[in-house]
Amino acid sequence: MATPAPVNHDREPYALDRRSETAPVLDLVHLSRQTMGDQSLEAELLSLFDRQAAQFAPRLAEPCRPDEIGARANLIHTLKGSSRAVGAFALGEAAEAYEAAMRAGAPDDAGHRERLLAQIAAARAAIGKLLERG
Known about the structure:
By secondary structure, this protein is mainly alpha-helical. The protein has a single domain, classed as HPT domain (Four Helix Bundle (Hemerythrin (Met), subunit A), Up-down Bundle). It is 64% helix and 5% strand. It contains 5 helices and 2 strands, in the order ββααααα. A two-stranded antiparallel sheet has the order 1-2. Helix 2 runs antiparallel to helix 5. It is elongated. The termini are far apart. 28% of the residues are buried.
């Protein structure tokens, strides 16, 4: 049987959204497991994710026309997967809800869009703090 990857225990397991101490923005234990404890790889993945989120946010901020629903759902799906890969599970949940609504044929909903954008901002802020601590 394979030996589990070492987990980096020398830091807080969560980067918390200070508006809600119980809502983790980033699950750093998950990220450490994904990278087998390689902190330089963690930083690289977080940086790549941050760039992706920065590119997607302006596109997601605009209301979606009916003819763009499929493309918007695909964009959100991509963000959902990458956010979960780096441990941004609250963002992944917001993306999942928005994507499901769009794929079910619901019109673009400002509530889903605003929740997703708020989670993107929270994740990017947490990543910024982590990367500057480096």
